Amino acid sequence: MVDDPRYAISLCWNDEDQVFVAIVPALPGCMAHGETLESALANAKTAISLWVDTAREFGDPVPA
């Protein structure tokens, strides 16, 4: 998991699904959710790590 401050994470509550949603605007399609803010944030950090690893694996650019 990464703890990289260069990727902002937007957190919001989703009434329909009753979860917190975490979106990483700099990484298209990178998002996560959780029942608490803390779990949504932790899941987002995992999603960032997976997104970056996958982009590198396929030779895609990784935003700085």
Lay out the secondary structure:
Blueprint: E1 10-14, E2 19-23, E3 31-34, H1 37-57
Antiparallel strand pairs: 1-2, 2-3
Structural class: alpha+beta
Number of domains: 1
Q: What is the rounded distance between the termini?
A: 17 Å
Mean pLDDT: 94
State the helix count: 1
Regarding quaternary structure, what we see is single chain
Helix % is 25-40%
Question: What is the string of helix and strand elements?
Answer: EEEH
Rg: 12 Å
| Regions with little confidence, pLDDT below 50 for 5+ residues | none
Which descriptor suits the 3D outline? elongated
Q: What is the number of beta strands?
A: 3
Strand order of the largest sheet: 1-2-3
Relative strand content: 15-25%
Largest sheet: 3 strands, antiparallel
Describe this structure in words.
This protein is 33% helix and 22% strand. It is an alpha+beta fold and 64 residues long. It has one domain. Strand 2 and strand 3 form a beta hairpin. The chain is elongated and about 35 Å long. The two termini are 17 Å apart. The model has no long low-confidence stretch (mean pLDDT 94).
Provide a concise account of the structure shown.
The protein has 64 residues and is α+β, with helices and mostly antiparallel strands.
Structural features:
alpha+beta, 3 strands, single chain, 64 residues
